[in-house]
Structures are given as structure tokens and as C-alpha cells.
Design goal:
Layout (H helix, E strand, L loop, with lengths): L8 E2 L2 H7 L1 H8 L8 H14 L3 E4 L2 E11 L4 E12 L7 E9 L8 H17 L5 E6 L4 E6 L2 H20 L17 H4 L1 H19 L1
Parallel strand pairs: 1-4, 5-6
Antiparallel strand pairs: 2-3, 3-4, 4-5, 6-7
Amino acid sequence: MMYNEDDLLPLSALQHLLFCERQCALIHIEQLWVENLFTAQGRIMHERVDRSGGESHGDIRVEFALPLRSLRLGLIGKADAVEFHRRPEGNPRWLPFPVEHKRGRPKKDNCDKVQLCAQALCLEETLDLIIPQGALFYGKKRRRQKVEFTGELRRQTEDTALRLHRLFDNAVTPAPVYSKKCDTCSFKDICLPRTLEKKRRVEQYLNRAAAL
């Protein structure tokens, strides 16, 4: 299946979807945005990368804010940075190596890795080559985490893109489900996960009681 230009969805939404489906819908369907200290730090980090342009270091050429698109996955966005590594032999001569910048620390789940892998899949589709790996740069640790684009990660990325399109097609914001990560989410006061979840449980109880 190939998507049309009008059907392309933000690549960054993959990370939001895996972090929290409700947050993803609030941002990308309801067009809401709330900033806190963490999101502000992340925005500033990305703005610095976006303003940097391109540069070269020996056998590595770096392009910042590189536009990306995949008609196969139905995604559009940009890469924080893509390093092009010169290879003395082989085809292609320059091998892309995407690098995504994140404010915090490495996460236990694959939400950041899926976002990075999606960037690689966009580049592969455009350049007609295979990209074996990339890296996540975490601001808190000030170091890179190398990411191998395994078959399993590629399948998860493709499945997440399908989930994202289904979410947009349904255009329904999921109900809140509270977890520990809600406490640091900038949408906490809008989403109200504890309040709405408690209200839903009360309504379910009353409905069951009325049915007796």
C-alpha cells in the first residue's frame, strides 16, 4: 500500500503514540499543546540543532533538519541530524546514519528507537539503500546510544505507523489510563487521568447497580 501526499502523518507522532495513545490524540488530532520544563528543554535542544545547518568532519558529512518522507508508511517529518559516512569501498559511497536528539535519558520501551527507525526507513525509501544503524543522543547523559535497525524493530515501526493511521482515521481520543509516567507529562492538568478514570469507574459501578 502506498499513501497519498495528503494522507501523510507526522513522523514524530510515532513516539507520542507509543508513550501514550491519549497524549498522541490530544496533540495531533485535537491540536493541543502544553509546555512544561521538560518540553521546553527539548524544544530548545531541537531549535539549536535546526539552526546549525550542515558541516563536515573528515569522512563524515552532517546534515541537520533533513526533510523526510515515506509514502509506504504514510509519514512525513525531518531528522534532527543525518551523518553521511564516507566508505572507501562499496555502494553507496556515503552511508546515512540518522541521529535523533532527546532531552532526557534512555527509555525502557522502544518509543525513541521506533521514531529513529522510522527516519531510517524514510531515508531508505528515498535513497534506495539499506541503513543498518543510527543513534539516539540523550542530553542528560551527554552520550549516544547506538541503535541497530533489526528486523524486529523495523516490524514494530511499521506496525506503529499502521496504528497511527487507524487512530487518525477513527478521530477519537482514547480515555485516560493513569500510570506513573502521567506525573511528568505536560498534559496532566488537561488530561486529568486520575479524575476521569475515577469518574469512569463510578459510572460503570452505577450502571451495573442499575441493571440489578
